[in-house]
């Protein structure tokens, strides 16, 4: 058990157990060698852990093969009635089940979930403002007690980027948002750490230079990066989610590539 123990002059204070919430992006899932290395490191993590996966790339590929168009706006997919069917098949089906099976093969018991399972991630359809996102949800509630009941059985929950309304409507939800909302909700029970594993070694100061990783991003730095337009596309919701999580109880947040779970990896840390 990874519990932090602090010895003060008044005796021993037991701190909350550490929970790691790890998000893996769709592009990494498709790279067999990198994904295998990532899964090995994930399985080796001690203590309770949760895996959240994306799959945007594969969803785009299948959608286009079927002759439908893909439209993104500020890093989020505009999801019409045809797209949501593909999303459910790809995220909830082939990707989620393959990851769970791979974890089982590595001796790590796991269970694949969408937000509808145990009504674990409740969302609301994104209101139509400047853009109508269609079947896209914003998370409103995470059922932390249900998720904890799985962790307590030593089973790793593996979440796809699918949420569900109270009325039973399945909605596509940005995977980074799902991870951040789970981490926020679990912070009432655990000391929570959030890891975003994606294509790059961290947040880059220069999009052309893969080695220009910014070590620490504070809120002030984040505002500057936004103003200077150093961040774009999928990095916009990713960093927005990071600061939301930091302000809502998540202790530590890291962004990096498939090696992020290794001790010696290069990464960006999000800080106040
Ligand atoms: N400053 C930046 N540093 C790193 N990546 C950036 C930056 N600005 C934009 N990006 C883009 O954001 C992408 C990460 O977002 P996204 O594709 O949604 O990740 P994920 O693979 O987790 O889904 C990177 O692959 C990169 O193309
Ligand atoms: C609403 C929305 O944008 N949902 C995302 C969910 C998948 C995801 O986040 O996948 P990656 O992590 O691989 O980008 C999408 O459909 O692309």
UniProtKB/TrEMBL annotation:
It catalyses: N-acetyl-L-glutamate + ATP = N-acetyl-L-glutamyl 5-phosphate + ADP. It is found in: Cytoplasm. The record marks 23, 238 as: Transition state stabilizer. It is an enzyme of class 2 (transferase). Pfam families: AA_kinase. It comes from the Bacteria. Substrate binds at residues 55-56, 77, 172. GO terms for molecular function: acetylglutamate kinase activity; ATP binding. Keywords: Amino-acid biosynthesis, Arginine biosynthesis, ATP-binding, Cytoplasm, Kinase, Nucleotide-binding, Transferase. GO terms for biological process: L-arginine biosynthetic process via ornithine. Belongs to the acetylglutamate kinase family. ArgB subfamily. This is Acetylglutamate kinase. It comes from Salegentibacter flavus.
């Amino acid at each position: 058990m990874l519990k932090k123990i602090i010895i003060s002059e008044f005796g021993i204070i037991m701190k909350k157990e550490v929970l790691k919430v790890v998000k893996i992006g769709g592009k990494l899932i498709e790279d067999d060698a990198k994904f295998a290395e990532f899964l090995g490191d994930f399985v080796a993590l001690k203590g309770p852990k949760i895996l959240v996966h994306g799959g945007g790339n594969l969803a785009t590929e299948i959608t286009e093969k079927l002759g439908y168009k893909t439209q993104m706006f500020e890093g989020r997919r505009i999801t019409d009635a045809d797209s949501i069917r593909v999303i459910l098949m790809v995220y909830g089906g082939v990707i989620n089940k393959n990851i769970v099976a791979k974890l089982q093969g590595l001796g790590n018991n796991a269970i694949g979930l969408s937000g509808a399972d145990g009504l674990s991630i409740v969302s609301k359809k994104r209101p139509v403002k400047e853009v109508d996102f269609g079947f896209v949800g914003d998370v409103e509630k995470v059922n932390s007690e249900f998720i904890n009941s799985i962790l307590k059985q030593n089973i790793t929950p593996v979440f796809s980027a699918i949420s569900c309304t109270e009325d039973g409507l399945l909605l596509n939800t940005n995977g980074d948002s799902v991870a951040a909302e789970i981490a926020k909700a679990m912070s009432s029970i655990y000391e929570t750490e959030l890891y975003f594993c994606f294509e790059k070694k961290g947040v880059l100061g220069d999009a052309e230079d893969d080695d220009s990783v910014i070590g620490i991003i504070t809120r002030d730095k984040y505002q500057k990066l936004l103003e200077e337009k150093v961040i774009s596309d999928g990095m916009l919701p990713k960093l927005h989610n990071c600061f939301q999580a930091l302000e809502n109880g998540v202790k530590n947040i890291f962004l990096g590539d498939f090696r992020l779970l290794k001790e010696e990896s290069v990464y960006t840390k999000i800080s106040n």
